[in-house]
């Protein structure tokens, strides 16, 4: 039997606690410690209820523990790159939530240090492990749909985040749409060469005050000429709307919303079914578990990462181009260079 991987988590917010609860019930892992700068009574009670051995106020103390083999970075986005560098220098395997950073320079530096130290770095784009999206990927890879021509991605949140979150998130394209940028690359298996964005403020004027948008349509063009259309909204009154369609020369395939039940009620006056699941914690619950199971296999069995640092960087580059296109009103070209962590250039057309 392979020994469990001893893990520490830096960041005890919502996503850190979600990973903690998943890690605790998985035989591949042994969760030993968690670090959080703001340690209060509530956090200590939560940690005690889960039999966590240590709660640190400083992530460096966690990294200094020689028993800890892998670290989950679940801190605010603007600290991800710093903790990747510190964990890499401590020779820990790294699982980092998306995005790696809010600047291409920071991301490139973090990836370079991880490469120099020879540590694994997986980025938390959990949607790659969603069963429906994986099925779409398999259909594309197998050639059953023929040559892909169009990908359509709908991603709409049930309610907007608060202003404080928006100000620190990096904006819609880096915080929300980045999942869709990664999904587009994942499904197509090729790089985006052009990005064109139309954004608007239709949900809440707060987003405009923060220099952000709440509604957007983004068109991606791939190296093969295939096109992806993404539509985003910060507020879908009917629930968490997550749909993907791949249309190709031999047919199409669609992944629909997940609902509490599949029951459809038909009467003389209406045909109804359940609304989509409320939010990402319900919709992607299994995907969160499966992505860290894949991380365990990469660490212990040297299997390929399901989402590498380079994948994370490419999604960020598309997000930066989407914002640039929104600000200029023009399409933005993306160039690509071989090698992880290599900066690339963009050009407004």
UniProtKB/TrEMBL annotation:
Species, as recorded: Paenibacillus helianthi
PANTHER family (alphabetical): BINDING ROSSMANN FOLD OXIDOREDUCTASE, PUTATIVE (AFU_ORTHOLOGUE AFUA_2G10240)-RELATED, NAD(P)-BINDING ROSSMANN-FOLD SUPERFAMILY PROTEIN-RELATED
Domain Gfo/Idh/MocA-like oxidoreductase N-terminal, chain residue ranges per copy: 7-125
Domain GFO/IDH/MocA-like oxidoreductase: 133-253
Alphabetical keyword list: Oxidoreductase
Entry protein name: Inositol 2-dehydrogenase
SUPFAM superfamilies, per database record: Glyceraldehyde-3-phosphate dehydrogenase-like, C-terminal domain, NAD(P)-binding Rossmann-fold domains
Source organism superkingdom: Bacteria
Family: Belongs to the Gfo/Idh/MocA family.
């Amino acid at each position: 039997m392979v020994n469990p991987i001893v893990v520490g988590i830096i960041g005890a917010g919502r996503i850190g606690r979600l990973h903690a609860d998943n890690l605790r019930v998985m035989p591949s892992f042994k969760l030993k410690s968690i670090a959080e700068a703001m340690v209060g009574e509530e956090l200590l009670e939560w940690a005690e209820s889960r039999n966590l051995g240590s709660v640190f106020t400083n992530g460096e103390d966690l990294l200094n523990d020689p028993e800890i083999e892998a670290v989950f970075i679940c801190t605010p986005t603007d600290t991800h790159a710093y903790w990747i560098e510190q964990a890499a220098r401590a020779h820990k395997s790294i699982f980092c939530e998306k995005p790696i950073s809010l600047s291409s320079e920071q991301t490139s530096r973090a990836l370079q240090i991880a490469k120099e130290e020879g540590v694994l770095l997986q980025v938390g784009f959990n949607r790659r492990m969603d069963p429906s999206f994986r099925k779409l990927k398999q259909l594309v890879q197998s050639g059953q749909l023929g040559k892909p021509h169009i990908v359509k991605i709908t991603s709409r949140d049930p309610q907007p985040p608060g202003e404080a979150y928006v100000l620190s998130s990096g904006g819609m394209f880096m915080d929300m749409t980045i999942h869709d940028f990664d999904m587009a690359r994942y499904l197509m298996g090729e790089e985006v060469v052009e990005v064109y964005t139309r954004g608007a403020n239709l949900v809440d004027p707060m987003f405009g005050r923060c220099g952000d948008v709440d509604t957007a349509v983004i068109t991606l063009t791939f190296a093969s000429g295939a096109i992806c259309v993404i539509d985003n909204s910060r507020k879908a009154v009917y629930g968490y709307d997550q749909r993907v369609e791949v249309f190709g020369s031999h047919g199409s395939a669609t992944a629909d919303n997940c609902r509490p039940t599949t029951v459809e009620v038909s009467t003389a006056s209406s045909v109804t079914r359940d609304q989509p699941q409320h939010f990402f914690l319900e919709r992607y619950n299994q995907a969160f578990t499966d992505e860290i199971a894949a991380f365990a296999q990469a660490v212990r069995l040297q299997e390929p990462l399901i989402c590498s640092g380079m994948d994370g960087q490419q999604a960020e580059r598309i997000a930066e181009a989407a914002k640039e296109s929104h600000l200029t009103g023009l399409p933005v070209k993306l160039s690509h260079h071989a090698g992880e962590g290599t900066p690339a250039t963009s050009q407004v057309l």
